[in-house]
Design a protein that fits this description.
By secondary structure, the protein is α+β, with helices and mostly antiparallel strands. 22% of the residues lie in helices and 36% in strands. The protein has helices at 42-50, 92-101, 107-120, 136-148, 166-183, 194-200, 218-223, 228-233, and strands at 4-13, 16-26, 31-35, 57-62, 65-66, 77-80, 154-158, 186-191, 203-208, 211-216, 240-249, 252-257, 260-266, 272-278, 284-286, 298-310, 315-321, 324-330, 341-346, 351-355, 362-363, 371-372. The strands form four sheets. Strands 11, 12, 13, 14, 15, 16, 17, 18, 19 and 20 form a ten-stranded antiparallel sheet that branches. It is elongated, with a radius of gyration of 25 Å. The two termini are 31 Å apart.
Length: 374
């Protein structure tokens, strides 16, 4: 078992609140990624879970037991640090054996367990080497194996791939995801890399300014961002976000901005400031002559092509729409000359709408005005 429950967990340093009142549950077998920009509190939160920092307030439970004030060595959690934290004077085998040796585990059992874990992460041929004789990727595997050898209730990982090059990071990411599936263990993983989060996580906790912005599956965060921040953080290129006005026209809820018109759904709403979000892959690009003057449902954006980026398998076309630069993901077969006038379109079901003041997602509720999601 490895079920963690965080209840209103906070941590302050002098006058700075690094983690602010975070509550969430990590179920047994979850791969939870703590995601967010630098300084958002994700490492501080992980260190509180590990017992390396005391919370200013709140509590933490592991399998129903309160471990808020328990020392780290009694939490039955294994930590993998960004710097690997291997003992340079010990061989790989002795590094792996160390957590079991300090528990005075039987020597034969230690030897068997070290060999088993080494084969699991494919470092069996490296057991006699010292850390200085290993590549960065090999040291990372040793650090993971040393955590595995203990068979803890949960694994805590603080940006373990950040020191690897891009190719090795991709391969190791796949290894970690496969390892999680084989073990069925609980992983809590810190990163600022959205690709790592989207490809490995069963749940993502998106942090912003020390607060929990959104918690859900990778698909939920990507397809239904709860806030302007969530919409802008996930995705590359990021979601196009356009300041607009929400109102009613001819019995339809509409969003208007310079060079932008979106017809959403039947109904009425008071005028209010809003933010319209459209992901680049949901936009299509047309010549003005082939596009309708105004959409019956969905969005129409009128602009001018500024720049195209060739990504090999596709291209990103950047267009100036009013005061906004809007990104469109398109096939390389589409040819648009810089300076060309274009119309961009998107279906109504692909649009995201946010309240301008709060930044929270607006959801349409029948017979009422759009309401922010808490």
């Amino acid at each position: 078992m490895g079920r963690l429950v965080l209840k209103q967990l906070s941590r302050s340093f002098k006058n700075v609140t690094a983690v602010n009142n975070i509550s969430l549950t990590v179920d047994d077998g979850d791969f939870l990624v703590l995601l967010g920009p630098s300084g958002c509190g994700k490492t501080t939160l992980l260190r509180m879970i590990a017992g390396l920092l005391e919370p200013t307030s709140g509590s933490l439970e592991l399998d129903g037991l309160d471990i808020t004030n328990a020392p780290s060595k009694k939490r039955d959690l294994a930590m993998v640090f960004q710097s690997y934290a291997l003992y340079p004077h010990l061989s790989v085998a002795k590094n792996l054996a160390f957590p079991l040796s300090v528990r005075k585990t039987d020597k034969q059992l230690v030897k068997e367990r070290v060999q088993q874990v080494a084969e699991m992460v494919e470092i069996g041929h490296l057991l006699d080497r010292k850390p200085k004789e290993l590549s960065g990727g090999q040291r990372q595997r040793v650090a993971v194996a040393r955590a595995l050898v203990r068979e803890p209730k949960a694994f805590l990982m603080d940006e373990p791939l950040s020191n690897l090059d891009a190719k090795l990071r991709t391969a190791t990411r796949q290894e970690l995801a496969g390892l999680h599936r084989r073990l069925g263990a609980t992983f809590i993983y810190v990163t600022h890399d959205q690709v790592e989060a989207m490809t490995m996580a069963t749940k993502i906790a998106l942090l912003n300014g020390g607060q929990l912005e959104q918690l859900g599956t990778p698909e939920e965060l990507y397809d239904k961002p709860a806030s302007v921040f969530a919409a802008g953080f996930l995705g590359s290129p990021a979601t196009n976000l356009i300041d607009a006005e929400l109102s009613t026209s001819n019995g339809m809820v509409t969003v208007m901005a310079p060079s932008v018109e979106a017809v959403l759904w039947p109904g009425e709403t008071p005028r209010r400031d809003a933010v319209l979000g459209i992901r680049p892959e949901h936009l299509s690009i047309h010549a003005p002559s082939s596009a309708a003057a105004a959409p019956n449902s969905g969005a129409a954006l009128r602009g001018v092509v500024e720049l195209s980026e060739n990504l090999g398998s596709e291209q990103i076309i950047y267009c100036r729409v009013g005061e906004n630069r809007v990104a469109v993901r398109a096939s390389r077969s589409e040819r648009w000359i810089d300076g060309s006038a274009v119309v961009l379109s998107a279906d109504a079901g692909c649009l995201h709408l946010f309240d301008k003041a709060s930044g929270r997602r607006l959801e349409w509720q029948p017979a009422s005005v759009p309401a922010p999601v808490a």
